[in-house]
Specification:
about 500 residues; alpha/beta; Amidase signature (AS) enzymes; 2 domains; eleven-stranded mixed beta sheet; about 35% helix
Length: about 500
């Protein structure tokens, strides 16, 4: 139920539900009504699950009445269409899986439903999570609620747009090279990529398995902590899942500067030290973005955080490294779509090999095919050592750079994206320019580090995101610093007029 000042946060909705000011059914209907009002312009959903949402809302109201409500009980959510939901279409925004209905839930879906969350539907995205603008969907592009002629970012563009437009209280996205943080920045909301392995990938349709991670997209930092609490945890069904004790991530949301993470060696005498890597203020960055982030850094200084310049020299290799490793992994992961077991199948030939070729030709979109070909080339005989092995060596250097810099500081501050949301169609004919949009976010996935994007101002009247980066398992510290910044600034309160 969007409030007079904008969409409700999770914690605001929780308060209204617990005080019986509104039922979950009423809340859900209000969000379905908002979807009905704006969805034909925003296009944030591939599938809207209205009947299921109302059924789950009625069950949530029963739980609330019995005193069995958790933080997410009865609160409407959108889930990215790359995350499996039992008996609900999961298309990955691809013709290849246009009619695929999973028979099981992803672990994160299961965790949300166990808490009594209400599923409004599945979010639009770049096909198989490959893209930076949400224009690669096989069905339609999503539009940015701040300016309907601009992109929302990608690949989790549907989630960021839905949260910004008040079509969902929060969303779950996936982040392989920035796909949660970058659209969150472009839509003026909060997005977090947790440490690799902290959130189970079971039931996440794979793009690049060593890089993928599920994360929340929310109205504010408090909501981000609440969702993270719900989705983290060891999962034996995911071989990369971390068996790590997790605390309540709302614990450091005090408004004061948090203590340094136990995993960081940079802090001295309890002071959280902030580093600003010059390599992230890249050539071609919009001046408005640069200024907004520099102003945000001054705010952190004003809160009492010592700020110092640091250097991550191997950052310049990160994008090239990513666009060898990710396509290589995707070429292997997407080999399963052969028209035999499930998904789209080209039937108009009796030749098995020809049928497989045509299935992949017509089932995959241009960007997915481009990345499959890039990856197949990098893994091919004669080129494996020159490309894939070299990229893995560069990956090691990038990780070592982060390890070194976190001996000096506790948290890094960078722009999330070098530009604000750009016009639809502006970069679709130039893949290299599109790939460059991820220059500030990709290094974290390569190193497996956590990062959060929070709104920090405007450029050209459009939202700018500031990215906070921490060492492994420093989510609590990141959230605490992000919250302190959020409470000292007005940016998280603004929403588009749509």
């Amino acid at each position: 139920m969007p409030s007079d000042s904008g969409p409700l946060t999770i914690h605001e909705a929780r308060g209204k539900l617990d005080r019986r000011e509104v039922t979950s059914v009423d809340l859900t209907r209000s969000y379905l009504d908002q979807i009905g009002r704006v969805e034909d312009r925003v296009k944030a959903f591939i599938t809207v699950t209205g009947d299921l949402a109302l059924q789950q809302a009625r069950q949530a109201d029963q739980r609330i009445a019995s005193g069995d409500a958790g933080p997410l009980t009865g609160v409407p959510v959108q889930v990215k269409d790359v995350i499996c939901t039992k008996d609900v279409l999961t298309t990955c925004a691809s013709r290849m899986l246009e009619n695929y209905v999973p028979v099981y839930n992803a672990t994160v879906s299961e965790k949300l439903f166990q808490q009594g969350a209400v599923l409004l539907g599945k979010g639009n995205m770049d096909e198989f999570a490959m893209g930076s603008s949400c224009e690669n969907s096989a069905f339609f592009p999503t539009r940015n609620p701040w300016d309907l002629e601009r992109v929302p970012g990608g690949s989790s563009g549907g989630g960021a747009a839905a949260v910004a437009a008040g079509e969902a209280v929060y969303a779950l996205g996936s982040d392989t090279g920035g796909s949660v943080r970058q659209p969150a920045a472009m839509c003026g909301v909060v997005g977090m990529k947790p440490t690799y392995g902290l959130v189970s990938r079971y039931g996440l349709v794979a793009y690049a398995s060593s890089l993928d991670q599920i994360g929340p997209i929310t109205q504010d930092v408090t909501d981000c902590a609440l969702v993270l609490n719900a989705i983290v945890g060891y999962d034996p069904r995911d071989s990369t899942s971390l068996n790590h004790d997790t605390a309540d991530y709302t614990g450091q949301l005090t408004g004061e500067l948090p203590r340094p993470s136990p995993n960081s060696k940079g802090g001295q005498q309890g002071a959280i030290r902030v580093g600003v890597p010059e390599e992230y203020f890249v050539e071609g960055m919009e001046e408005g973005v640069r200024q907004a982030v520099l102003d945000a850094i001054k705010t952190l200084e004003g809160l009492g955080a010592p700020v110092q310049p640091v250097s991550l020299p191997t950052t310049k290799y990160a994008l090239a490294c990513y666009y060898v490793i990710a396509p290589s992994e995707c070429s292997a992961n997407l080999a399963r779509y052969d028209g035999v077991k499930y998904g789209y199948s080209f039937q108009d030939t009796d030749d098995m090999w020809r049928a497989m070729e045509l299935t992949r030709q017509y089932g995959f979109g241009p960007e997915v095919k481009r990345r499959i070909m890039l990856g197949s080339y990098a893994l091919s005989a004669g080129y494996y050592d020159a490309y894939y092995v070299k990229a893995q060596q560069a990956r090691t250097l990038i990780r070592q750079d982060f390890d070194r810099v976190f001996q000096e500081v506790d948290i890094l501050v960078t722009p999330t994206s070098p530009v604000v949301a750009f016009p639809l169609g502006e970069k679709t004919e130039d893949p290299v320019q599109m790939y460059l949009i991820d220059v500030c976010t990709v290094p974290l996935n390569i190193a497996g580090l956590p990062g959060i994007s929070v709104p920090c101002g405007y450029s050209q009247g459009l939202p700018v995101g500031m990215q906070l980066i921490g060492p492994h398992l420093s989510e609590a510290t990141l959230l605490g610093l992000a919250y302190a910044y959020e409470q000292a600034t007005p940016w998280h309160n603004a929403r588009p007029d749509i």
